[in-house]
Amino acid sequence: MSLYDYQGRGAPLGKIVTGTKTITTAGTAVQVVTASTPIDGVWVGADMSGGPLVVGDSAVLATIGSMQGVVIVPGNPSTYINVDNLNLLYVDAQSSGNKLCYAYLQPSY
Questions:
Q1: Under DSSP, is residue 74 helix (H, G, I), strand (E, B) or coil?
Q2: What is the CATH number of the domain that holds 23?
Q3: Residue 49, Cα to own-chain centre: how many angstroms?
Q4: Which three-class secondary structure state does DSSP give residue 88?
Q5: Could you give the maximum distance between any two Cα atoms of the chain, in Å?
Q6: Which one-letter DSSP state was computed for residue 19?
Q7: Does residue 8 lie within any of the structural domains?
Q8: How far apart are CA 107 and CA 9, in angstroms?
Q9: pLDDT by residue (tens digit) across 67-85?
Q10: CA distances (Å), 27 to each of 53, 65, 96, in order?
């Protein structure tokens, strides 16, 4: 049985890959991964032990009153972001030590 992307495009996908990224310095955009990681979109969520996160491009910002990006709140459903490489995704938090949880389908090509 092959996995297919959720949009029904029919391209066979490989395995499900999961991970976490810890925000070590609040107020600083952190690249989720630095290596090129081709994907067909990613689901992101905030670890239940922390506070809200903001995800987006390298200009992402979690500062109250100046947020830029998609706000991810612990306990809310995961958010799907349609991106073709995981190294394009950045995350920031209002508190150091918060964690982003992510999952993606690895393309089989």
A1: coil
A2: 2.60.120
A3: 17
A4: helix
A5: 47
A6: E
A7: no
A8: 13
A9: 999 999 999 999 999 999 9
A10: 10, 12, 8
